[in-house]
Amino acid sequence: MQGTTMPSGFLSRIAWRSLLPGGHLRALTLPQHLKGYNTDALRHDAISGLNVALLAVPQGMAYAMIAGMPREAMGIMCSAVASVAGALFAASRYTILGPTNATALMVFSVSTGLAGAVPVPAAMLLPVLVFLTGLLLVAGAGLRMADMVQYISRSVIVGYVAGAGLLIVAGQLREVLGITSGVRGKNFFSMISGTVTHFHNANPWAAMLALLTVVLYIAVRRLAPRLPAFPLVLAAVSVLAALLPDSVRHVERLHRFEPSELLPAAPDLTGREAMEALGYLFGPAMALAFLAALENTVMGKSLSGRTGTQTSLNQDLMACGIANVGCAFAGGMPASGSLTRSALNHASGARTPVSSLICGLICLTAALSLGPVMPFVPRPALAALVICVAASLVNPRHLRICWRATRSDAITLAVTIGSTLLMPLHVAIFLGVAASVILYLRKAARPSLVEYEFSAEGALQERNAATGRQNPGISIVHVEGELFFGAAELFRTQIQRTAQDENLRVIILRMKNARHLDATSVMAMEDLVGFLRASGRHLIVSGLSKEVYRVLRNSGMIEVIGRENLFMGSATNPNLSTRNALKRAQELLGTKKAEVHIFYDPAHEKAEG
Fold first, then answer.
1. In whole angstroms, what is the distance from residue 185 CA to residue 170 CA?
2. More confident residue, 438 or 138
């Protein structure tokens, strides 16, 4: 796919090649997977596609219920469109795109939070939100943003997924109990409070059907784990509910719909209302795109680990973005990488993405033909199955690891779960990420310097702080690790505190192992030079790497420090620059008799030991 002429069409221009050097995105990936395709591969793909569709259809309805969609079949349409897009554009042969628990819950959080609060019709919010999310994902793929997901702490993911699982359970309790009165809550505690307040309106038949559903689901999963428990149990309970007395038939059912209600409809993205919606929805769309990228990348890496195959995460991210653009025109449900359905696709023996294509076609057929059947499906039964799936999101082992590993992990986990339960999800996920980044920077920006001196026997020992220097002093400060903005202020204050000793005349910064010097650190160094020179003292820098020297040169610090006070590092003789710096220090002192004290970071030494 090379040439000097760019292909026409929006998607082709975006997907033809990466926006950064070294990356490559393909306009279509399915032809690459079909090389050498035969009837045996088609048979395996057909079986896999059918198995996944049997799960995707009821899950699509369940996720539409979680998202608060007006028609449960919109979730099936999302599965259909996303599965086809995954087959055409994804790099992984096992990827199944579609609605997921976490993305559906975020849609519910956004829609309930913005409904009535913005001057935009509610019917326009979700299609515009999903369309904008798709564009952000395609742009992120071009910018190779899938590679950035590895920097997200696993504690954030575990906390968010666990919090989302609890939210889903709380949100479905009203459906399980058949409570139709009262306003639904917007966070975990208001949901629980509202359910308890209106508990007297519960329908005992609904609760019994839900309990029966949970028992059957657990029994099928344990006794026949190879069978598709979700659709089998939902079908069995629906048939049973239809055979029971009339009192049971008053239990809430799913809504009947006509195929015309699910046909693609292009949302007006050029009118004034759409422009206003973009302003309100950009933040939530960023959060939804971030969550979809997170799920898609975790799914891709998990499947790669299971199968031993390699995949292009950015290509898969682009496929997810295109799927969301398509879903915006077919119901308004967002799509992401489904680990459950993708794992089932692999376990069923899929050979190529044709299995995803077959799954999408089956889902499309189901979405357009299941309208008359929907009124037979009890909402409490579907809600009970949603709770069963949501409960599996709470992984006690992962929670225990994050809680006990480090204090930072425990705080990040607590902040993420707490914000998920209390705040809108598009805010909560960024709070969790912010907490993990801040705690990391706090940990990375705590230099601990200890002053050492030579004993009479020539051995290094910790200097007694009560002992003053009798001779002009030279201090060597080992600067090791990331010298970024977070560490700059502490570095400067500690060195200035050390320089309070009036006998200390020269400080040598040994920067052989210093990395990522930035503007904040450069300005801190400039302040340090001014502080020392104001009292007639000197700063020398030794062991400079090319990277650090380039930063000092570009920022004009060479002239501030003095070129004669800078000594480049030597790979063949690492201590040569420090020896030359010591000679320069003695020249500045006008003596050859000077105490030499060495500073080092004991935490760094332990990390290397």
1. 9
2. 138
Distances (CA, A) of 457 to 454, 541, 594: 8, 28, 17
Structural tokens at position 71:
């028609």
Residue 95 covered by a domain: yes
Tokens representing residue 47 in the block: 């079986």
For the purposes of burial, counting CB atoms within 10 Å of the CB of 6, is it exposed (0-12), middle (13-18) or buried (19 or more)? exposed
Domain closes at, from 395, 410, 437? 437
Cα 358 to Cα 370: distance, rounded to the nearest angstrom: 18
**pLDDT (tens digit per residue) in 528-557:** 888 888 888 889 988 888 888 999 999 999
What's the angle, vertex CA 30, arms to CA 29 and CA 34, rounded to 5? 125
CA distances from residue 360 to 57, 58, 337 in whole angstroms, order as listed = 10, 14, 14
The pTM score is: 0.74
Q: 10 Å Cβ neighbour count for 343?
A: 17
Task: Output the furthest CA–CA distance in the chain (Å, rounded).
Answer: 105
Strand pairing of 460-462 and 473-482?
unpaired
**How large is the angle between the packed helices 354-369 and 39-67, nearest 10 degrees?**
50
**What local confidence, expressed as pLDDT, does residue 160 receive?**
87
Given pLDDT bands bounded at 50, 70 and 90, which one contains residue 266? low
Residue with tokens 């907490």: 435
User: Which residue reads 């508990």 in tokens?
Assistant: 199
For residues 213 and 221, give the distance between their C-alpha atoms in angstroms, rounded to a whole number.
Answer: 12
Q: What single DSSP character describes residue 349?
A: T
Distances (CA, A) of 234 to 209, 238, 241, 375, 391: 11, 6, 11, 13, 17
Q: Are 237 and 216 in contact (CB under 8 A)?
A: yes
* CA distance linking residue 55 with residue 394, whole number of Å: 21
Q: CA-to-CA distance for 133 and 335, rounded, in angstroms?
A: 10
**What is the amino acid identity at position 337?**
G
Burial class (CB in 10 A: 0-12, 13-18, 19+), 194: buried
pLDDT of 119 reads 60
The Cα–Cα gap between 9 and 512 comes to 51
Pairing mode of beta strands 538-544, 566-568: parallel
Taking the CA atoms of 290, 293, 295 and 297 in sequence, report the sign of the dihedral they define.
negative
Closest CA to 160 of 282, 298, 275, 261: 298
Query: How far is C-alpha 516 from the geometric centre of its chain's CA atoms?
Result: 25
Residues 411 and 505 reside in one and the same domain: no
Indicate the number of domains in the chain: 2
The angle at the Cα of 64, spanning 59 to 65, to the nearest 5 degrees, equals 95
* Inter-CA distances, 23 with 4, 300, 313, 553, Å: 17, 18, 11, 32
pLDDT in the model for residue 518: 84
Task: Please tell me whether residues 467 and 586 are part of one structural domain.
Answer: yes
Instruction: Judge contact between 349 and 105, C-beta under 8 A.
Output: no
Identify whether 444 is part of a domain: no
Domain of residue 554, CATH code: 3.30.750.24
Confidence of residue 566 (pLDDT cuts 50, 70, 90): very high
Nearest 5°: the CA angle 412, 415, 419 is 145
Arithmetic mean of pLDDT, 308-321? 86
Instruction: Say yes or no: 402 and 549 in one domain.
Output: no
